[in-house]
Amino acid sequence: MDEFNLIDAFFARHQSRRRDVVIGIGDDGAVVQPAAEHELVIATDTMVEGVHFDSTTPPRALGHKIAAVNISDLAAMGAEPSWLTLALTLPRVDRDWLEEFSAGLFEIADYYHCALVGGDTTRGPLTLTVTAQGQLPKGKAISRGKAKPGDWIYVSGDLGDAGLGLAVSQQRVEVASRHLKRVYDKLHYPMPRVALGQALRGIASACIDVSDGLLADLGQILKQSNCAAQVQIDKLPLSLALTETLEAEDALRYALTSGDDYELCFTLPEQHRGQLETRIAHTAIKPVCIGQVVGGDKGKIRLRDGADEWQFAAAVQPGYNHFNDND
Q1: pLDDT, tens digit, for every residue of 12-40?
Q2: If both were cysteines, with which of 2, 157, 241, 291 could 179 make a disulfide (CB 3.0 to 4.6 Å apart)?
């Protein structure tokens, strides 16, 4: 099977239902028509075998996740996902693998009404790259750099479960059978908070998706906003899978530092808290307030347990970094 037959067999056959795709797969480039008075948000992410996943990871999960992590970036900026391109590097053509991978990719793309409009295929070490484009009304993008002292800090859901799923898959931790599906799904099949991201337009002062760990990602908001924060560890949303599997400090370490949760972390001025409640009343998402932005050292996060200062018994890395020799 050559490159063009591969594209036809597994990707071009899936026809877009979006009317704004003028020219899709099969030409030198895609042509799309953004909505009037809208801006584009563009995000790119790469997953490499041996770095982000191993050979035991199901190909359907890889197809889902490489789309999901990009859609999550769009969600963090308040955008509506619209179009994807895929660059796929394969060591060989494996029809069964491609069938499963493309099924996972299109399942989540269809769920968010997002069209695959082009890309590239090459031979080499297994590498997956997706570029996602989304749309939002002009001037409504949510950035990381506008948080202010007094803003409240929220997260959209439980933290640490994906990290626990990774530890289980690497046989570093055992969980009860009743928790296995949850932690594996959180690791392999994350669901971006698209509806919440759009609800935050015009009311959130800053937002980021939690891909590298809460401390690391919240730290990005604080550095770009020239602020500090207090985070209440007693307010962190933790699942039963996490708290029934790990000792208390280990559970907190997973929640604060492990990546791949793809929940949204956002800051909200006091005067917009009621609007948030109103905008998400029809959804199942229940963001949790975990602390507050304060003045002080740029990027500094102080942990508190109730009214008391709290710190880990041993030093921890705040999150994942590709170029940190300790990771």
Answers
A1: 767 667 899 998 888 889 999 999 999 99
A2: 241
Sequence ranges of the domains in the chain: 3-137, 152-309
Q: Give the bridge partners for 272, in sequence order.
A: none
156 labeled part of a ligand binding site? no
The CATH topology of domain 3-137 is: 60s Ribosomal Protein L30; Chain: A; (3.30.1330)
Convert 268-317 into a string of H (helix), E (strand) and C (coil): ECHHHHHHHHHHCCCCCCCCEEEEEEECCCCCCEEEEECCEECCCCCCCC
Neighbours of 40 (CB within 10 A): 14
Which residue, chain included where needed, has tokens 């050559």?
2
Radius of gyration for the alpha carbons in the chain, expressed in angstroms and rounded: 20
Please provide the average confidence, as pLDDT, over all residues in the chain. Answer: 93
| 120 known member of a binding site | yes
* Residue 209 known to bind ligand: yes
Alpha helices by DSSP H, 46-135: 59-76, 95-111
Q: Name the pTM for this structure.
A: 0.92
Sheet holding 80-90, edge to edge: 38-48, 127-137, 80-90, 115-123
Answer yes or no: is 217 a known binding residue: no
Residue 11's pLDDT band (cuts 50, 70, 90): confident
Q: Does 151 appear as a known binding residue?
A: no
End-to-end CA, the chain = 39
